[in-house]
Design brief:
The structure holds two protein chains of two kinds.
Chain A (H helix, E strand, L loop, with lengths): L6 H37 L12 H23 L6 H9 L4 H38 L20 E2 L3 E2 L4 H31 L4 H19 L21 H31 L1
Antiparallel strand pairs in A: 1-2
Helix pairs in contact in A: 1-4, 2-4, 2-5, 4-7, 5-6, 5-7
Chain B lengths: L1 H5 L2 H34 L3 E5 L5 E6 L8 E7 L4 E6 L7 E5 L2 E6 L3 H4 L6 H4 L2 E7 L4 E5 L3 E7 L6 E6 L5 E16 L14 E3 L4 E16 L7 E13 L2 H6 E5 L7
Classes of the chains: A mainly alpha, B alpha/beta.
């Protein structure tokens, strides 16, 4: 069992990972902060204040898009040492079991990254949304207008809750969040798997492989069915049968598990080779 | 390379993941098709309402209804009943006669609220209403678009068509009638008023007298077959786009401007 997992060894692996990579993590978040500040600056531009960018629905899109893009790039960088023969040898010889290396990848990329990104997002965007709320000026309405739909500036608190009393929003958003997390884990496992499996130009080869795979699947005409995770408004028009529930749960829970398991075997087989 | 792939568990697990993804998605697709077919069989898409003696019809949709219906109202001189048909599985149409008025409502329900689906069968918001030509007054509120068409056989037929709030488009097409009185009380937010065509007089209309009352919006005349008499009571913020003959025929009356400048 100790050969498989040792707490002390895993702790040393964590420390080594942090010591070697904290600068690159800082750079990563620094670049993201710069990019976000540019976007925020353009939204608050004096001539055209794009208040729509701070409405609830846009916040969800902003947060999710950022998490997806940065989460995938972050995953592609996790095994960057394996890309060159010299550093790959050092990384593979590191005194840790395959499981520990796999667990480190899952903790860093799959759990800690989304949590850190979420905290970073809240720190950066909460003041921006409050500012948008203050700056927003409702358009002049005609006298006979009985109502005008005001923008929803409720702050989107990902994975924690929603600053809104409207329960009809909360349910679909939570479903979307769960599905997004599953999508993210699936894509991260694919990217990590590719970067471990391909010895030469791992990122390029992974991108090409997944591109052709994506095109081939698209040609079969088989579209992904979110099933029980579908957050669209029609989800209860036709009640899902127990079979449909079971199948969609099986699909979206087993798929990322299978891909992360694939990563485990890729790490193991890369070391043996 | 091939050997490396064949004798290792990682690549095989990857292939198994893809097969799992494709297989389960195919099964869900089949189940979806079966359940949609079942829902379609159970769908009540057509209603006939006996409206003998009823000359006023009103259509109302709730303000918060996400799937605002698009109405096509057809006046049929041979019809004796009102017929309402729609294909959307998510839309509810409730029609009943209240105090001598046919009241057609599109209520919000769990079903209609959640009906904006992925499939076109759900998204189709079109509702066709066939009305007898003895109906002479139609009121509308909270509807997406309206198209008005059909024939009134009586040479003295009159139709008062009143819209109580903002409707993106009212189109009159292939309508044969002696006197059409349109009243559009747009409630659009002021900033949006410039962007849409509110009233379109389309092709093949045979209208002797046309009266239009409108405060804000745009009128587009896309046909050369114009009514013989045109009376327009318009606010300052109404724009008209049409052939010069229309302006020569029309008699204008200024409507007090209800909107701020």
């Amino acid at each position: 069992m100790k050969a498989y997992f040792s707490g002390a060894r895993f702790k040393r692996l964590l420390i080594a990972q942090w010591t070697e990579n904290w600068r690159s993590y800082a750079w990563f978040f620094g670049i993201m902060t710069m990019a976000n500040l540019i976007f925020l600056g353009s939204a608050f531009s004096r001539q055209t204040f794009h208040y729509q960018m701070f409405e609830f629905a846009e916040q969800v899109i902003w947060y999710s898009t950022g998490l997806f893009i940065s989460g995938i790039i972050f995953a592609a960088l996790h095994f960057k040492h394996l890309a060159t023969p010299g550093s790959a040898l050092i990384a593979l010889m590191r005194p840790a079991s395959h499981f520990e290396k796999w667990l480190l990848a899952f903790l860093t990329v799959g759990l800690l990254y989304p949590l850190t990104y979420t905290s970073w997002y809240i720190v950066l965007h909460f003041p921006a949304v409050q500012m948008a709320k203050i700056l927003y000026v409702a358009p002049e309405l005609c006298k006979t207008c009985t109502k005008h739909s005001l923008p929803n500036f409720s702050f989107y608190l990902p994975f924690i809750g929603i600053e809104s009393s409207n329960t009809s929003i909360i349910k679909p958003v939570l479903r979307t969040e769960i599905l997004n997390l599953i999508y993210l884990w699936t894509l991260q496992a694919l990217v990590l798997g590719g970067t471990v499996f391909f010895k030469v130009s791992p990122v390029l080869r992974s991108v090409l492989t997944y591109f052709f795979l994506f095109v081939s699947i698209a040609l079969t005409g088989i579209a992904p069915h979110e099933g029980v995770f579908w957050a669209g408004p029609d989800s209860e028009v036709i009640p899902a049968s127990p079979m449909e529930y079971g199948l969609s749960l099986a699909l979206w829970i087993v798929l990322p598990v299978l891909l992360w398991l694939t990563l485990f075997f890729h790490i193991k087989e890369r070391e043996i080779s | 390379m091939i050997g490396r792939v064949l004798f290792r568990l990682g690549p095989w697990l990857f292939i198994a993941s893809i097969a799992w993804y494709l297989g389960i998605n195919t099964l869900i697709e089949r189940l979806n098709k079966a359940s949609i077919a079942q829902a379609e069989r159970a769908h009540k898409g057509k209603q006939d309402i006996e409206i003998r003696g009823v000359t006023t019809v009103q259509f109302r949709a709730e303000d918060d209804l996400k799937m605002q219906p698009q109405l096509k109202i057809i006046f049929d001189s041979s019809a004796l009943r009102a017929t309402i048909s729609h294909i959307s599985l998510g839309m509810i149409v409730d029609a009943k006669i209240v105090n001598g008025v046919l009241d057609v409502t599109f209520p919000i329900s769990e079903k209609s609220d959640k009906a904006l689906g992925k499939m076109s069968r759900y998204e189709n918001r079109r509702v066709e209403i066939r009305l007898p030509s003895f109906v002479n007054k139609v009121g509308i509120s909270g509807i997406g678009d309206v198209e008005l068409t059909g024939q009134f056989q009586s040479p003295s037929a009159e139709l008062a068509f009143e819209i109580f709030d903002s409707i993106p488009e009212v189109k009159v097409e292939s309508l044969v009638i002696n006197h059409l009185k349109l009243s559009i009380n747009s409630l659009k937010p002021w900033e949006e008023a410039d962007y849409t065509e509110d009233l379109i007089l389309g092709e093949s209309n045979v209208i002797n007298n046309l009266g239009v009352i409108m405060s804000i919006g745009k009128i587009l005349i896309s046909s050369n077959e114009l009514p013989q008499h045109i009376q327009l009571e318009l606010g300052d913020k109404v724009m008209i786009n049409g052939p010069s003959t229309f302006f020569r025929t029309a008699q204008f009356k200024v409507r007090p401007n209800l909107a701020p400048p």
